[in-house]
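ok new one. same drill as before - structure tokens go in, u give me an amino acid for every spot. 89 of them this time. try not to just spam alanines like last time pls lmao
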């Protein structure tokens, strides 16, 4: 099966607007100091890539469910197995 590596080029302003829309938190609770806030170690880029990957997985899973006239849970398991190699970075 061929593989594809998508590349996205967006400006800092676009990244900020998109990740804000997707509810990115620039600061999160410090796991070592309850009540203290720290900069989000995930970063906006990694957060957005995670959202893109999640969206692609959902699209793929929905299509697999449509193409196979199976029980939805079985189709989703099949799709998850197929997607184990999906790597968006």
């Amino acid at each position: 099966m061929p593989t594809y590596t998508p590349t996205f080029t967006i400006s800092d302003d676009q990244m900020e607007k998109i990740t804000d829309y997707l509810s990115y938190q620039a600061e999160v609770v410090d796991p070592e100091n309850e009540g203290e806030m720290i900069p989000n170690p995930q970063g906006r880029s990694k957060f957005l890539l995670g959202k893109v990957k999640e969206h692609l997985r959902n699209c793929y899973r929905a299509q697999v469910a449509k193409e196979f006239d199976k029980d939805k849970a079985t189709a989703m398991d099949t799709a998850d197995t197929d997607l184990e190699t999906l790597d968006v970075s």
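Residues 12-85 form one domain. and btw Residues 36 and 84 are 36 Å apart (CA to CA).
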